[in-house]
Write a structure and sequence with these properties.
Layout lengths: L12 H11 L23 H12 L2
């Protein structure tokens, strides 16, 4: 599922927080499905993907 970086079957705020922590290199932060977080579909996880995730979450 698109945006579901923690692989719990749903896209929610927990996914946004997890990606943000991963981008900030918080220790012991692991993405279960990094490809789900590639919201820009460019093969790179970065702040742009986080922005799209936040926008899509708000618009749900």
């Amino acid at each position: 599922m698109r945006g579901d970086v923690n692989a719990d079957g749903k896209f929610d705020a927990a996914d946004v927080v997890l990606l943000q922590n991963w981008l900030l290199a918080v220790p012991n932060t692991n993405l279960a499905n990094w490809k789900a977080g590639d919201m820009c579909e460019d093969g790179i996880l970065d702040v742009f993907d986080l922005c799209v995730m936040k926008s899509e979450l708000i618009n749900q």
